Amino acid sequence: MSTPENLRYTKEHEWLSDVVDGVATVGITAFAADALGDVVYAQLPQVGDTVTEGETCGELESTKSVSDLYSPVSGEIVEANQDVVDDPALVNTAPFEGGWLFKVRISEEPKDVLSAEEYTKLTAGN
Fold this sequence. Notes:
Elements: E1 8-9, E2 14-16, E3 23-28, H1 30-36, E4 39-43, E5 50-51, E6 56-62, E7 66-70, E8 74-80, H2 82-86, H3 90-93, E9 102-108, H4 116-124
Antiparallel strand pairs: 1-2, 2-3, 3-9, 4-6, 5-8, 6-7, 8-9
């Protein structure tokens, strides 16, 4: 399973891109997408919403279950991926590309993120 080296990860299976001009992109990992099964609905935070690191900010519904979406950082939402709202299957088919979920202007550096190597070790037992 793919775990891109250029991303940071959370124990809740979200990924976080490098920060560019104060903004980072957030999505869920391939591991999480596989565990969820076919995603059929995405409720994402809205532009202007404030999110808090470790707190729920949306949900993904699959044919198996409903899963809370946690923000890996604190900040303000600057973009939500409308393509995922329109076609939630993108989360399964391209979790690190077109299936990203939202972009956030970070208000503080995240405290509890993992490197790709650490995340791979975390998911290796599952």
